[in-house]
Design goal:
Low-confidence stretches: 1-6
Structural class: alpha+beta
Number of helices: 6
Shape: globular
CATH class of one domain: Mainly Alpha
Helix content: 40-55%
Mean pLDDT: 88
CATH topology of one domain: Arc Repressor Mutant, subunit A
CATH superfamily of one domain: Winged helix-like DNA-binding domain superfamily/Winged helix DNA-binding domain
Strand content: 5-15%
């Protein structure tokens, strides 16, 4: 089972936990529970889903230690559990993503698909939820939304420089996040990678 390597970071080092996070619903549950403890109904209300559809996902996340019960309350004859995410960031052991093995490739493909699916569902839900808020009388507040795709030819050195500067920005704006639930949450999905195309190998490359 994955264990926390340092405060705020949960390192996944086993396939079971990796499969647990390879689900857009479970990823969104963890994000909602990062700011403050909440019960299943509260999370379901935020995600626009029925609570009955979330219990299985909560159990899976709790089993591998990605969320935990931090408070219980007596409501009528029932015990109500309040959960919170155990970490703000998730790292994955590079051994699980070894591209030279079949399992490593499958794990990488699963992780990429899950991240993209989570981003799509979160963005679409956010647009729908905000539209409903405004229809119900909430005041409009213009905010920037960036959704772009670029291709750029650069040297490996330039790519490394870009990564370094991006990490510095993340450290400034993400790592120092106050986690104040009163502040607006902004979601970011960052993907920068060498883009390859299929082609026939000829000449020396085919030997």
């Amino acid at each position: 089972m994955g264990k926390q390597k340092r405060e705020g970071v949960f390192t996944i080092s086993d396939l079971e936990t990796l499969k647990v996070i390879a689900d857009p619903v479970r990823n969104q549950i963890m994000e909602v529970l990062e700011k403050q403890p909440q019960n299943v109904k509260e999370v379901a209300d935020k995600l626009g889903l029925a609570p009955s559809k979330l219990y299985y996902h909560f159990n899976m996340l709790e089993k591998v230690g990605l969320i935990k019960v931090v408070e219980t309350r007596q409501v009528a004859n029932l015990i109500e559990k309040y959960y919170q995410s155990t970490a703000s960031f998730i790292d994955i052991d590079h051994n699980l993503l070894n591209f030279s093995t079949a399992d490593g490739k499958e794990n990488m493909f699963t992780l990429v698909t899950s991240t993209i699916d989570t981003t799509r569902e979160d963005l679409l839900r956010s647009l729908q939820a905000r539209s409903l808020q405004i229809e119900q009388g909430a005041s409009g507040k213009p905010r920037s939304v960036t959704l772009s795709r670029y291709l750029s030819n650069m040297t490996d050195e330039k790519a490394d420089e870009f990564h370094k500067r991006m990490e510095e920005l993340l450290e400034e704006f993400i790592d120092n996040d106050t986690k104040d639930p009163e502040h607006q949450t902004f979601a970011m999905t960052i993907a920068m990678y060498p883009s390859f195309y299929f082609r026939d190998l000829t000449g020396e490359e085919n030997k």
